[in-house]
Amino acid sequence: MAQKNTFVFHNGIEIPHIGFGTWQIPNDEVYEPVTVALKTGYRHIDTAAAYQNEENVGKAIKDFGLKREEVFITSKLRASIKGYESTLEEFEKTISKLGVDYLDLYLIHAPWPWEEKGKDCSEGNVQSWKAMEKLYNDGKIKAIGVSNFEISDLQPILDQCDIVPMANQIPFYIGRYQAQKELVDFCHEHNIVVEAYSPLATGELLNGKEITELAEKYDVTPAQICLRYCLEKNTLPLPKSTHEERIVENMQLDFTLSKEDVALLDAVKDVRQS
Which residue numbers mark the site Lowers pKa of active site Tyr (predicted)? Predict the structure, then answer.
């Protein structure tokens, strides 16, 4: 699925191998970081209706002046929206706010509403997915996928729908590998690209002993070790930053980790579970 500088969905659409995440960047602050990211060379921008920043994400992309097809834009269906017609309506709101005619990737943000985490919404997810299949078949979305879906959430879509999800965006970072291995393997077996959100564990990883030692060994930053690790595990990292220096560093991943060092990082404990 991964080629140099891109991953390839099972429908042949290519997605840049690193994306710029905009989670937790308010609408009135997101314009400049997206502009810096585009200036740095990012061509993959990730947002969501729930982030409430689609308007200025879209404005930054438009003002930067690239051709629409040169920027890969992802957004997500609100987790509370479950159903066919409501999904079609929500999609129209998203592309209107972004100021675009189509999306490159549209995801169901979560298998359940955030305030009802763990609720079985399989029927609603299937109906939302069928709406997304229609949008895909109508050419309004280049690729469709999900986010935060476990195997049990994916299975109803695989069983009852026509199109296998092209992506599953999940929390994945050093220390999370063992917990996510079964899900990642399942996705790869079904040609579902795994996108790694929070690849730096929102910064909590950066002072870890193993990571700082490897950063010194490879002459890179701890953040670059974390992001390179995601790529070594065949997952697509989505780092977020509002600092220009870090935005630039996060794109500089032209090195590889040895198999021994990847195995060392596989064994690191999850900082968020300690």
Answer: 76
